Structure prediction request, 449 residues.
Amino acid sequence: MSNYVQRVLEEVIRRNPNEPEFHQTATEILHSLEPVFDKHPEYEKAGLLERFVEPERVIMFRVPWVDDSGKVCVNKGYRVQFSSAIGPYKGGLRFAPSVNLSIMKFLAFEQTLKNSLTSLPMGGGKGGSDFDPTGKSDAEVMRFCQSFMTELYRHIGPNTDVPAGDMGVGAREIGYLFGQYKRIKNAYENGVLTGKDLAFGGSLIRPEATGYGATYFFTEVLAHEKISIKGLKFSVSGFGNVAWGAAQKITQLGGKVVTISGPDGYIYLKDGMTQEMIDFMPVMNSWRHNKVSEFKDKFPQVEFVAGKKPWGNVDCDVCMPCATQNEIRIEDAKAIVAKGIKYVNEVSNMPCTNEAVELMQSKGVIVCPSKAVNAGGVATSGLEMSQNSMRLSWTAEEVDEKLKGIMKNIHTQILQATIDYNLGYNLVAGANIAGFDKVAKAMMAQGNV
Prediction:
């Protein structure tokens, strides 16, 4: 490792103790960027990397709300505004018990490069709360969202920071958040949030966009490898909007989805999901029980394996994690390699540990990195922002075609970076370098800020 990169990475770890997820993503990204600093020594002189790894702003606040029994509850709220070098901060809000500062910073850091790859003018940010919407009534969720926005509103805006949904934050939550923002601001700024309902400025195919985009990106990888998607078997994790969109598009293009999963285990379908099964996924997700076993209640012919992840336990051609961070660990990577699986298409944010990625790549597995693969979600959010700005509404076909073009361009950028830096077909390093390139140039042009 270059002395400059090593020094900055050590400083990141020292100054941000007890933040393992942030350390993990910083280590992975900075290692990939070493050849960039060899080629651009002026970046070190400008202290570029020191500025790049430090969020521009971190906001933490309390969120008091009252549950249906009248009890006062208090949660933590976060917004990490990581980089505005190429546009207003842009990134989702996550409501989940696991949310903490480390996870928010890792997500915002990843988002900075992901948004750069889309070629849309969006900076990187992320936010959320340790509030758990599971089992809460609509009234409780509304009261929480209104309290959350009562603090957040002063830090966001259509040209400042544009949050969206993420885990635990869907159209319901975005609606409540927007309603409170509008009420406080006394202004109809529907470009302040994305993932909205179609009735007030949302975009068609936004719920499916991350899964659609992930599949479009993978078809570019397959084209590079001169392989057809038809007949390929995909092991997918999760069963929310991301997994649902992926299952739809994979099936439309002729692939077979043989697993979906939840915290309680996974469902296996040897011959792939039917359209009826795919259509049931959002229904099951809307129950907010977070149990994939309920899928078997509807379709008793499927196999349910309790307490396990699908990785390396089923025959497939592609592993497609769509659930959460670090779901593929070193033991899972070993099982994937032992099964002879050649492709891991990361859809959730940082679903593989660094050790798992290193092992799989060393054994010839092509790892498609999440910051490229799942960029379809934020790309379509960017398209929603454009529609809001122009007071237009595009058809589903128009949005889908634009999304497909963006994902193709992302693969093209990454491929060019691998060629420029002689990386072989290393998509992980190529994505980091391609995403960093635009941010670095903008930071250099804008001075020491």
